[in-house]
Amino acid sequence: MSFADHHAAYKVSFCNVLMSAVFLIQVFPANCFVPVLHFSPSKQTTQTCTVASSSFARVKVKSDRLMNKLKMSLPNQQSGVSAGSDIAAKFDAINSNRRDISINIGLVDKAGDSPSSRMPWEKKVLFIRHGVTEMNEYLRSVPYGSKDFVDPGMRDTRLTVTGQEQAAELGKAMIEQVETWKENGEGLDLIVSSPLSRALDTAQLIFSGENLKCIPRRVNPLVRERMWLSSDVGTPTSQLRSAYPSWEFGDMEDVWWYTTEDDWQTKEWRSPGRYVCAGEPESVFRKRLTEFKNWLKTREEQRIVVVAHWGVIYALTGLSLRNCQAQEIKLSTLLEQDIFSTD
User: Fold this and answer.
1) Which of 138, 208, 227, 265 is most solvent-facing, going by the fewest CB within 10 Å?
2) Strand 105-106, strand 303-308: pairing
3) Full-prediction pTM beyond 0.85?
């Protein structure tokens, strides 16, 4: 091995050691750090800081800067999903004993890219999972799959107070993020939502800011949750049009959720006596998500927000998002990936 090869190997090894050290700092729970870039904790948030907040905040800021430098010095690794970029707005999780909240807008850009090098910039899709619902709360007390589980019959379940607060907090972050995008010559062109009320209500709360109200918004039944529980049975389009007048519904059928009439050969695969609605086969679910990917391919917008559900987002991206967590992915990456199984 030549001297140059030794030198290159030593540089990569040294950088890896430094990255490991920085990683140890970054993986501490968010509640160990003073909020530097995010909102004040809500009234129910448990204060559990165990170190000197101001000192640790300075360490974390320095570690973030060092990590960005190290990423740029190492061989570039292509990735469809990333939490870091020059324009990324990062918001720590809001933790409490009773909540599992994460508000994190992680943008997908290659480390070291400048706005000018991204022009024309790649199309992106920002996925947001809806806030906490009544069914989410029920499933925490009676976990899905447990011997005591029985579908409680909560049709088109609504957001809880916690879910509404989550969406409002993310809305504050979104106002700032949209301004950041504008400063970098980008923008937010279209908001798409599942027709289930929990997704629509989440989207309404997030995009209620003055600089967000003018963004076109469209309901797309292709991103409704996979029919599994009573909470996935929807509300007729005729009623939704009245409840959400600012949304475009197109020619959506009045009954847009899955029924056994959609696939009369369906055989129930779930445990008998525990459910109150027909389950949607994965083959049917995969088919409509493929249709949604094809729909995205035809759109001219550069950045689209999709407010949807755990099953939909996981199947499309392989990402398991918590309630009101946001993650952006390049459209090209989304189109290249296969649909992930949710069985």
Assistant:
1) 265
2) unpaired
3) no
Residuewise pLDDT in 10s, the chain (343 residues): 544 454 445 444 444 544 444 444 443 333 332 222 233 333 333 332 322 333 333 334 334 443 343 333 333 333 344 332 322 232 333 233 334 444 455 544 433 343 334 445 789 999 999 999 999 999 999 988 888 999 999 999 999 999 999 999 999 999 999 999 999 999 999 999 999 999 999 999 999 988 898 999 999 999 999 999 999 999 999 999 999 999 999 999 999 999 876 555 556 666 667 888 888 999 999 999 999 999 999 999 999 999 999 999 999 999 999 999 999 999 999 999 999 999 8
End-to-end CA distance of the chain: 50
